[in-house]
Design a protein that fits this description.
There is one protein chain. The chain is an alpha/beta fold. The chain has 9 helices and 8 strands. It has a 5-stranded parallel sheet with strand order 2-3-1-4-8, with helices on both faces. The two termini are about 10 Å apart. About 35% of the residues are buried. Bound molecules: BIS(adenosine)-5'-pentaphosphate.
């Protein structure tokens, strides 16, 4: 088991979830996706899920205190020393600092930022369908009738409307993009071109991890 702690950064639709699943499978890492965890809370109608829903629907960030407690609780459950790939967290400087404090030694090991042009992000998200069970993403241009990983039903996320997509992109620039500089200052930032084919992006991401090991 590889013990590396990776944060995947990038705007909505960059392919964080797509690449996190492959990294976790190929490298034996625990995959923790804050958006997936929040959607599961919504489906179970927990107090957190009910509080988060209106923020998520409109494309705004869920308040830091709620998300930090949820994700750090999940990391704690799987052990701080196991390899982990974080997808969608941290998304604010406050979250990044909380993560650094919670992690043993020197915080995370690698921050990999996946860059994609805005028109391509809008195209991907506008046509995305995801599995209700395992959250695997598909695009309407090439979509099976049910999830090819687990057989679950495919649906369109509530925040994949044009209005919410644009708000999420604006929120990314104001709240999350500053994390690039935060991790650059720590010497942990690596940028990959996410505009290429999925397999090619995977190759670039794995190259970054291999160079770290
Ligand atoms: P979250 O679920 O994290 O959504 P997101 O960051 O907006 O990211 P997405 O899931 O939309 O995109 P992705 O980068 O994972 O791309 P994907 O692989 O799916 O968060 C949702 C909401 O929850 C937030 O808006 C917020 O309200 C809340 N939230 C979550 N975390 C939070 C936090 N830390 N703090 C506060 N609030 C939080 O790919 C997208 C599409 O493109 C798919 O159709 C895929 O098949 C396709 N695709 C992927 N790669 C490629 C490629 N290389 N070429 C062509 N198509 C591709």
């Amino acid at each position: 088991m590889l013990s590396v702690r990776i944060v995947l950064l990038g705007p909505p639709g960059a392919g964080k979830g797509t690449q996190a699943v492959v990294l976790a499978d190929q490298m034996g890492l625990v995959h923790i996706a804050s958006g997936d965890l929040l959607r599961k809370h919504q489906a179970r109608e927990t107090e957190l899920g009910l509080k988060a829903r209106s923020y998520m629907q409109s494309g705004l960030l869920v308040p830091d205190d709620l998300v930090i407690a949820m994700v750090l609780g999940e990391i704690g459950r799987d052990g701080n020393n196991m390899g982990v790939v974080l997808d969608g967290f941290p998304r604010t400087l406050e979250q990044a600092k909380a993560l650094d404090e919670a992690m043993a030694e020197n915080g995370i090991d690698l921050a990999i930022s996946i860059g994609v042009s805005e028109p391509e992000l809008v195209r991907r998200l506008g046509g995305r369908l995801v599995c209700r069970e395992c959250q695997a993403p598909y695009h309407q241009d090439n979509v099976p009738s049910i999830c090819s990983r687990c057989g679950g039903e495919l649906y369109q996320r509530e925040d994949d409307t044009i209005e919410a997509i644009h708000r999420r992109l604006v929120v990314y620039q104001s709240e999350t993009a500053p994390l690039l500089d935060y991790y650059h200052q720590q010497g942990k930032l690596h940028q990959v071109d996410g505009g290429r084919e999925v397999d090619e992006v995977t190759r670039l991401v794995i190259e970054v991890v291999d160079n770290y090991r």
